[in-house]
Amino acid sequence: MKKTILAIFAIATSSFAMAQSFNADSYKSVGVYDTWEQSPFRTGELSGNVKVIKNHLYSSTGVNRTGHIVGVQRSRFGSNTFGVRIDLNTPVEIGRNGKYVHALVYTPKASKVQIIGLGKRNSNTWNQPDDVEQFWSEPVSISANTWKDIVVNVKTNENDRIYSIVVVPDCSSPHALTEDFVAYVDEVVINSTSSSRSSVTSSSDPYDSSEPDDPEPEDPDEEEGIYGLNFDKTRTNTRTRDHYIRGISLTSANGQKQQYPSSGSNSALTTNLYLDATAMAVFDVTAGETYTPDIDYSTDWMHAYTYIDYNRDGYFTYEMRPSGNAVTDDSELVSFSAYSSDYTGGATGNWYDSKGNSLGNMAQGNYACNTTTMPSFTIPSTLQSGLYRMRLKIDWCSLDAGGNDGSDGTSNEIWANGGGIVDIMLQVTGREEATLHATSYRNGTMSDNAGTTITTQLQQVTRDTEYKVKMHPANGFVTESLTAVFKRNSNEHSGYLVNDTTTFTTAQTCYSFADDSFTLPAEIMYAEVAVEPMFNNRPATMLLGDANGDGKVDISDVTTTIDRILKDTWTANDGTFILRNADVNVDDRIDISDVTGIIDIVLGREE
Prior knowledge:
Layout: E1 9-12, E2 17-20, E3 27-34, H1 40-43, E4 50-54, E5 68-74, E6 82-92, E7 99-106, E8 111-121, E9 132-136, E10 140-142, E11 148-154, E12 160-168, E13 181-191, E14 245-252, E15 257-260, E16 274-276, E17 282-286, E18 290-297, E19 303-308, E20 333-336, E21 350-352, E22 358-361, E23 377-378, E24 386-395, E25 420-429, E26 433-438, E27 444-448, E28 459-462, E29 467-473, E30 477-486, E31 497-498, E32 501-502, E33 506-510, E34 517-520, E35 528-537, H2 555-566, H3 592-602
Parallel strand pairs: 1-13, 16-25, 17-25, 26-35
Antiparallel strand pairs: 1-2, 3-6, 4-5, 5-13, 6-12, 7-11, 7-13, 8-9, 8-10, 8-12, 14-15, 14-18, 18-23, 19-20, 19-24, 21-22, 24-25, 26-28, 27-29, 29-34, 30-33, 30-35, 31-32
Helix pairs in contact: 2-3
């Protein structure tokens, strides 16, 4: 007997609304796809693993409450655009006005998700198959081990028909992958709504707890503990009556104080044990300088700890000096008010702060260890400019950044003692240098003025100095755009994730280039700058003057070209097309001379 499997793909457009479930055969097939033409998944050397399984990630209060999901093995042998492909029975029209594609995605690691549309232009002139890439979305960041409703705005030509949707669960470079991992996709929707869904249920695919579990792909590389906690993030503090965090601060050696909240507060910062304030608090520091952290806590009868993820690997690691009473200079546990390695509960233990200063022995009646006052620490002078996650914690005698869970046998759980954890961001600036790197590469590379490839690793560049870059499209591709992501000031904070940490702030995009080159202006070369070139397929045949790609040259192409010229500046990405056809005088730039050339074509003045 055929069972109901999954209402994974629902389409809603202005012309129709339809829920498509697998058991109703409302889709053609589900498989894997890779944009890399030499991919072993396109040559037939590998087939890929994708399967519909029971939703083992179901939660009655979670985002995804459907019965089944699609699991896909993210292979390290595929390119960065390897993903799950869903072929539709009925093609979808999107058009130049654009629509929003939604997809629930779950991955075991922080990643960047991308949506790709496959289809063809409904024109005898183009004669395309139905699996030509018609749109690529901008990457969207997601955290590890949680469902997120990805929402992307996409546009196509008016004559395009989309036959398949590809969800790329991790579009970062696969070169660093040592093992495959399993990602999950569910409930893909195309509509005109930009807001994300807080929860998704399906009447055609309800969750059935009595149904036996489907065998699911093994996840060989599940990443746990990225900025981990020893309790649920949503757990409330059970002792807020007299123990609570009011705020945090960082003070430089010359007395300049940065604090969150900025105005101070006499009330609890949060009723939960954990507060992720990385999108709200960014403290500016300078490499080589000394700072003193502080947690404004309602009582002194606890201990305070500060961590910085210097290597940005998603973990707070620490190393103690041989004495066991102080941290090393390069430890990511940078400061603590009190700790005893021989504490066994009650009035026991010899206590020290992070600099190794003795705080006495409680058994001898010395209670100087009951303090949240932390010593200063120094940012390493060699630390590269950029954004780093900082964690401040109130706890009792625990160096574990995730909080005391009582496993030491002292029954001093962080939740029982009224402790708490707050994560913020540090903007580290070198004294004279900034850093630059590429976020990822797809179908091309990029180099500096000397011809050296700009990699995804941080490299030193001169601060406040313009920097020329050159794009190198792969064969069959052209440069579409260049996006620079950089920090302007400490009040701006948005961007994409590295190990669950937002790492950049302001994004701006440019579209037209002379000789595939662009000069990054000096005013953005501050702290850490990320650059991401986008390359797109070069049309098999080019029709000079057809700026909007509709297969003919008319007055609308003049309007499109003028619009592009006006937007050829550091502005937000508007999702427009490649305009190589508009470069009628073939000088690798689009300017007013091309407008004149298109007018000449329209009026028949060109031979």
